[in-house]
Amino acid sequence: MAEESWNAARLIPTSGINGAEEQERRATSALLAVLSAVKEFGRAIVAPLGAPAGTVETYIEVPFTLGDKRLYPDGLVRVSRGQRSWTALVEVKTGTNTLAAEQLENYLDIAREQGYDAVITISNEVPAVRGQHPTIVDRRKLRKVALHHLPWVEVLAEAVMQKEFRGVADPDQAWILGELIRYLEHPRSGAMSFEDMGASWVPVREAVHAGTLRAGDKGIQDVASKFDALLRYAGLRLGQRLGADVQPALTRKELADPALRSQALVQTLSAHGTLAGGIRIPGATATITITADLRANQIHCSCELDAPKQGRPKTRVTWLLRQLEKATDTLRVEAFTMHSRGPGTAELLRTVRDNPDLLITDPTRELRAFRLTQITPLGAKRGTGRGAFIDSVIDGVDTFYEEVVQHLRSWTAPPPRLRDDPETDDAGVRTALISAGLSSQDDPEPAGHEAPAVAPSREASAEPASRAAHDDDIELTGSEEPTGSDAWSDVERTESEDPGGAHEPAAALAPAAREPVPAGIDRATASSHPMPRRTASDAAAWSSYAPAPAVVRPLPSAFT
Predict the structure, then answer these.
(1) Strands laid side by side in the 75-81 sheet
(2) Rounded distance, CA 154 to CA 120, Å?
(3) Does the pLDDT of residue 102 top 80, yes or no?
(4) Residue 47: which of 60, 59, 35 has the closest Cα?
(5) 91-95, 117-121, 394-398, 510-514: which has the minimum mean pLDDT?
(6) What is the pLDDT of residue 421?
(7) Which residue has the higher pLDDT, 551 or 389?
(8) How far apart are CA 557 and CA 560, in angstroms?
(9) Which one, of 302, 271, 298, 275, lies nearest residue 286 by Cα?
(10) Nearest Cα to 490, choosing from 480, 500, 498?
(11) Beta strand 84-92 with 118-123: parallel, antiparallel or unpaired?
(12) For the whole model, what pTM was predicted?
């Protein structure tokens, strides 16, 4: 016999299971034993139910007497911490068996008489919301005893996340938890997946196609509840693969009153032939919305993503396309603009890749958001397998997350950048404002700054630094040579070569009033050594003025 055909010995074997009773007893014993053996897993299961952090003890088929009846709950869990203890009865169902209200009410009565804290039920029934129980019981019996429900798929997902993602400190305990996972994943364990949409699925689907479905029809409420349960099951399966707590996306009102959610589903199904819901993945950029269109036989998986707050519209579209490199070409991309209502501009991804401008109807309007939608065929069968509704929804969700959602990143604004400091001299004062202190209002490039129309040639490298700075702020302009007392009337001081500063005040730039150049002093010398205005009595003194030799720049041709 070849080794490939040998069956490995397992701590919790699936062989030898004969009938539903044996299947239920073995699943209960295996689960409760691992709860007490693996501390991390036991804590993860009982802590959300209100148990303290302590030692977990578990028992199976504990006998109790209620009136004249002898009852045997499937199990009992006790958590002790010091003087405090928390005790819960456990009722387990496997396969297609469902919980009975009478049996649960009897266990609630026993728990109340014994002073226990809760009753825990485990079955393949998946309620739409965590904390909601699939079986309706007398609410008066819940005044002192809590009633909790755990689907087998949630128990399995919790075990996988604890072993694969959170970790188990002791290697032997990790191996034991792995054996429980192997057992629960085996088809003969009775811990089945979500496998049936119920007996009302086919009649409701046919009524939708015929256009005769009404909100009060029999079975429509059951289909709406099954769809919510399917969304939660899809989230648990996805969370098992991601190691995250994936939950249905519900509003606060729907969480407080599940009847509102059920009523909304019934209305949309009867009016539009659609069932819609969402799942929220921790850390993901967007919530996945799943819409089952029974009239068009399509599954729509979509999400919305905010557009960047900066950049041109085409830049924002390009930012999105870079994140959709692994998405299929049939993905529908829809763009919405600011202050707009109704549908946006929609195109297929393959078209947008070739021409991003197709999503932009008006370049002057900013894009505020994108919607991405993947459409897949809807299965018609009520069960699982090829062509089944359940598998079409699960596959659509998994594919959409894998190809689109997990690659999306939210846009974040870049950090602010420091402005470049303007040019300063050794003393820390701007060259163009040598008499003023540096201010935060001095822009690096003044608005409206233009280069001088006439740039006189000069040998700036031969002049002292202070004189060069002074000369850089002076420009001589004029079309005709001035004469007499008007010789300096056309002289203007302007900012010609100061790329790092702002214009000086008007008073500083106004030319000083000067008198005519006396005879005997050439005009170039007078311009390089300006003198203040003098009276007629000082003319003789000025005529004898002999400045020190200096390198001067030539005057414009208008003065020569």
Answers:
(1) 55-60, 75-81, 84-92, 118-123, 146-151
(2) 14
(3) yes
(4) 35
(5) 510-514
(6) 63
(7) 389
(8) 5
(9) 302
(10) 480
(11) parallel
(12) 0.69
